Amino acid sequence: MVKVLLWGSLADAADGQREVQVEAGTLRELLDGLGGNFPGLRAELERGVSVSIDGRIYNDAWFTPIHEDSEVVLLKRLKGG
Amino acid sequence: MALDDTKKTRDFKVIGTRPDRPDGIDKVTGRARFGADMVLPGMLTGRVLRSPHAHARIRSIDISKAEALPGVKAVVTRADFDAVPDDVADILDNCMAGEKALYDGHAVAAVAATSAAVARKALKLIEVDYEVLPHVTDVDAAMKPDAPVLHEGRQQETVPKGMSPNVIARSEFGHGDIEAGLAKADRVVERTFRTAATHQGYIEPHACVATMSSDGQGDLWVCTQGHYMVRNTCAAILGLEQGQLRVTASEIGGGFGGKTAVFLEPVALMLARKSGRPVKMVMSRSEVLRASGPTSSTSIDVKIGMTKAGKITAGMAELRYQGGAWPGSPVDMGAMSAFAPYDLENVKTIGWDVVSNRPKAAAYRAPGAPMAAFAVESAVDELAKGFGLDPLEVRLMNGADEGTKASYGPTYPAIGLKATLEAAKAHPHWSAPLGENQGRGVACGFWFNFGGDTCVSLNITPDGTVTVSEGNPDIGGSRASMTMMAAEELGIPYEQVRTIIADTGSLGQNEVTDGSRVTFAVGLATIEAARAAKREMCRRAAMVWGIDEEAVDWEDGAARPAGPNAGKFPPMTLKEIAAIASNTGGPIAGHHEVNAEGAGVSFATHMVDVELDRDTGSTKILRYTVLQDAGKAVHPSYVEGQFQGGAVQGIGWALNEEYVYGEDGILQNPGFLDYRIPVASDLPMIDTVILEIPNPGHPYGVRGVGETSIVPPLAAVANAVSAAAGVRMTDLPLSPPKVLAALQGRARTEA
């Protein structure tokens, strides 16, 4: 299981939980698991999110490995200029 | 992919030097071809008719008289576009208005004609019947329950019920207990800050030339930060297959985020499709300011508590950004980055995305972050000064470091913030004396940096020169950087490599040139492509020598036997291997395709001295120093250029630049005379200090540097002006009338 930190307004969409557990070994499994376990998160997931894994930002690389002790933070989708 | 190269010490031969840029001669002699320079046989001139109203329902558009005008070959309105996928619906709506014109300058029709004069005349013959609607351009006014409404049904579920439909989304970040933290403070500062909308101010206006043939194939030459984005977006809007539309990026005269969107391109393609002729479209400066993307204007409440020893006990910010007429202001990134330079137990930010009757905000260098940093860094400065503390020491005491839980969630790996603060403290600028009417300001800034889809193809020519093809327009010297990284990896001179920007038909998908990603991501792909070519060249040498390819190493531009057991053969240089490539299996190339995620975050500290004219309220920048972590500076001159450019744009944002709307919702200053960006004579030489804390995610330790440098200057300048004026300045730009009013107000108070 991977522990995922949700930012404030996402926590509201996950029944107020700021940390949730998801069975996931990759980024894709993480996003699928979050959407499956927490329907309230789906709207935000569909709008697009970024994920910080051990301090590095990932957007779309589904098979980025996530370890059980990884720090995983769901973020609003990031965009640069 | 092995990304652990920075763990070993490496002596670079090309990286870190300062060769001439490969596009330099063309640019200084005028030979470089920018967007408006492309000419095709039979080409028509396209022009856009724009709304004179800030908000109006379009009852009807009569184009018959324009179509009948001799020389007019096509007239386009929204009726010419079919329904489009949801993800490009707002983009089309911005390029060509549908039911409503949503801002002054919104495109409502376009013509293609045999000359500019005919096109202009045709625009005057188009009759648009508008029902003028109430408008709103201010972010706080747009949030009021009785504000004129731009869209119904766009509000996200994150917004509490009962708010204006103009409030599109709410986000919240942070951790800890704000009230408990504030209770521990010896002083709490609570202020509201405002920033004006500013434009990226690129010198080259948007321009493109489009062709569309009857078999569905099209070509587009365009000035953009991302021609793959242009291809994909235009294909979706026009119902084309992406592979049938080839887009070639011209040289680009600045972008800074503002050219990461399409404005003219779908319209030019539609005009070309309808007329059967090539169509060129070039915006005027007025059109650029009225109808391409500025940044958000903002209104930000900040509340920060500090002990008298300088420890921040809690930080809170509520940020309201209007992003123009459609959802998508960069408020989330403002809310995430506002307190990112600090290690805080208690921190909370709330962001509100708001629409208003202004052009849709486009990205602008670290989108959303400079305004948030202005608010937070001003409040920190006020608290530090109020306790008589050194603002650099306060930032060192509270600054984020490796292991800090960032305000937006993650725990930082190795970062360079404190290194920039220590370097600032040691810099002679910090201890230099100040004169009368002068003030010094300091501020920190943070940016995320990105990677994304990237392709590089590297080809060895028969004579042993090397060509690198990449898919990102060169907006900051990236051809030089890629050339250097290829030369470094191959062990050959810089002059033996040439890098070009390939069209969309020549490489796979490439993310836009944004997010400070190119030197990081394209550099990574260039190095990997060079490594692939090296492996192949080692294999060819092994064939010639009759040994195993594993027994061949690549060093200093040549294949060499790996050790004494491999056999005694003289090194075979890249040129020698290239010369016999046909004999050993054919042409030699390397390529690499990757979604280069995992870019490292970046921090900077800026210091500035200003002098105020007490009679006019004008501010002169006396001295400015940028200190920033570059990971590894590939070409230090271009890193310095990025630092300096960000500082200068930030100075403009802080002092001069401002979208001024009249009561009628019409932009009052759509030209560079009235919208004033800083010019060379306004500024001292911007001093730079490059720090190099390697990014473990890049083979050479590179971090993006293009955006972070615009984050601190708004606050740094405001802190300096506040120090000189003796009044906390909270409303940007700090134009002479505002500074003069503050000075006079203080004089009255003292009297």
Structure description:
The complex is a heterodimer of chains A (81) and B (751). Chain A is an alpha+beta fold and 81 residues long. Chain A has one domain: Ubiquitin-like (UB roll), CATH 3.10.20. Helices cover 28% and strands 26% of the residues of chain A. Chain A has helices at residues 8-13, 27-37, 42-47, and strands spanning 2-5, 19-22, 49-53, 56-58, 72-76. The longest helix of chain A is centred in the middle third of the chain and has 11 residues, at 27-37. The model of chain A has no long low-confidence stretch (mean pLDDT 89). By secondary structure, chain B is of the alpha+beta class. Chain B has 3 domains: 5-32 and 451-595, Aldehyde Oxidoreductase, domain 4 (2-Layer Sandwich); 35-133 and 205-252 and 259-291, Aldehyde oxidase/xanthine dehydrogenase, a/b hammerhead (Aldehyde Oxidoreductase, domain 3); 297-449 and 600-750, Aldehyde Oxidoreductase, domain 4, CATH 3.30.365. Chain B contains 20 helices and 26 strands. In chain B, the strands form 6 sheets. Chain B has a 7-stranded mixed beta sheet, with helices on both faces. In chain B, strand 20 and strand 21 (558-561) form a beta hairpin. In chain B, helix 15 runs parallel beside helix 16. Chain B starts with 23 loop residues before the first helix and ends with a helix. Classes of the chains: A alpha+beta (81), B alpha+beta (751). At the A-B interface, helix 1, strand 4 and strand 5 of A face strand 7 and helix 10 of B.
Summarize the helices and strands and which ones pair or pack.
The complex is a heterodimer of chains A (81) and B (751).
Chain A (H helix, E strand, L loop, with lengths): L1 E4 L2 H6 L5 E4 L4 H11 L4 H6 L1 E5 L2 E3 L13 E5 L5
Parallel strand pairs in A: 1-5
Antiparallel strand pairs in A: 1-2, 3-4, 3-5
Chain B lengths: L23 H6 L14 E7 L5 E7 L1 H5 L3 E5 L9 H10 L4 E2 L5 E7 L2 H10 L1 E6 L6 H5 L23 E9 L2 H6 L3 E9 L11 E6 L5 E5 L4 H12 L6 E5 L15 H11 L3 E4 L2 H7 L5 E10 L5 E11 L8 H7 L9 E8 L14 H18 L4 H8 L18 H10 L1 H4 L6 E10 L5 E8 L5 E5 L7 H13 L6 E5 L16 H28 L6 E4 L2 E4 L10 E2 H6 L8 E8 L6 E11 L6 E11 L6 H20 L30 E6 L21 H13 L10 H15 L1
Parallel strand pairs in B: 1-12, 10-11, 14-15, 18-19, 25-26
Antiparallel strand pairs in B: 1-5, 2-4, 2-6, 3-5, 7-15, 8-13, 9-10, 9-12, 13-14, 16-24, 17-18, 17-23, 20-21, 21-22, 24-25
Helix pairs in contact in B: 7-8, 10-11, 11-19, 12-13, 15-16, 18-19
